[in-house]
Design brief:
Number of strands: 7
Radius of gyration: 19 Å
Helix content: 40-55%
Strand content: 5-15%
Order of helices and strands: HHEHHEEHHHEHEHEHEHHH
């Protein structure tokens, strides 16, 4: 398996990111409710007419439940993604989950990808060429670079506990969104991501932290929300903003959405759910739509500032 990795393509992916700094040419790609948030944002962006690719770098394959394709023709258990990373095949979506929204599912096949990444890391430690020592970190970057021109936005939904997959996503992407709860464990996880972000930045200088999303809050506890945001902002030390829009915790709504395989925005007027749950779903849909607007505004401002910075 080791011999199938195209180090030339990986090195080219790294050099391309360095070239982006000099040229000022930037392309965004697109992550505690991370899969639900990724799916909801993907649907909102696709409804705006953007061509979106949602790639789930997670062995659980939760996007299939969020978008309703688990067990169907689009659900390949991560096989297409594994073939792209391990065999050098194109990163090809299994199909369209919605108009303008194409999916590369996660699943059990990613276990082989994670195992290979660990093997690559061990082998790299003994390499004499400095580029060969870090090339394993760019296996996803090479795969994504080959198809990024086909999409307006690429969202990488990354497993929270997988160090090799998180590092791969950080090296491959341009903007990072971090969903976080208010508990100490989540804040500790935020610091872990920050450390990996710093490591990835040495190979991917265009990488920027777009912001932190406060997830699973009580929508009526405004003061508590403000305290949570203040705590997270203090922990970030100015590295990125905490988004104003929070995502409320409504268990009944979340269960109904996954049962029906649709995001809240698609069920706010549905007759398939109880009216009381529908009200909660509608409120949750408003949260996600407001968040999508805020994320796009932050992304636009950051892109413009970065282009001006690199052009100066």
């Amino acid at each position: 398996m080791l011999g199938l990795v195209d180090l030339t393509a990986v090195k080219a992916a790294f050099r391309r990111r360095l070239t982006l700094i000099e040229s000022g040419t930037l392309t965004s790609k697109g992550g505690v409710g991370k899969s639900s948030t990724a799916a909801a944002l993907a649907v909102d962006l696709s409804k705006l007419g953007l061509r979106v690719l949602l790639a789930e770098m997670d062995e659980q394959g939760n996007n299939g439940e969020d978008l309703g394709f688990t067990g169907g023709p689009l659900d390949d258990g991560g096989a297409a993604q594994a073939a792209a990373i391990l065999d050098g095949k194109p990163l090809t979506p299994t199909g369209g989950a919605r108009p303008n929204l194409f999916v590369v599912p996660g699943g059990a096949a990613l276990e082989d990808v994670v195992e290979e990444l660990y093997c690559q890391r061990r082998v790299a430690k003994h390499a004499t060429d400095p580029e060969d020592q870090v090339a394993w970190r760019g296996m996803y970057a090479a795969a994504i670079d080959a198809v990024q021109h086909l999409y307006d936005v690429i969202i990488l939904d990354v497993a929270p506990g997988s160090e090799p997959l998180q590092l791969q996503a950080l090296v491959a992407g341009h903007r990072v969104l971090i969903p976080s709860k208010s508990d100490p464990s989540s804040r500790k996880g935020l610091r872990t991501v920050a450390r990996r972000f710093a490591r990835a930045l040495t190979l991917n200088p265009v990488l920027r932290l777009l912001g932190v999303i406060v997830f699973a809050t009580n929508s009526s506890a405004t003061r508590v929300q403000d305290d949570i945001k203040a705590q997270l902002a203090e922990g970030l030390r100015g590295a990125a903003p905490v988004f104003e829009q929070t995502i409320r915790r409504v268990e009944a709504a979340a269960v109904a959405c996954r049962r029906l395989g649709k995001v809240p925005q698609e069920l706010r007027k549905s007759k398939d759910v109880d009216p009381s749950v529908r009200r909660s779903i509608s409120a949750l849909a408003t949260d996600y739509q407001s968040l999508a607007i805020e994320v796009l505004q932050a992304k636009t401002a950051m892109d413009q500032a970065q282009q001006e910075e690199f052009a100066a």
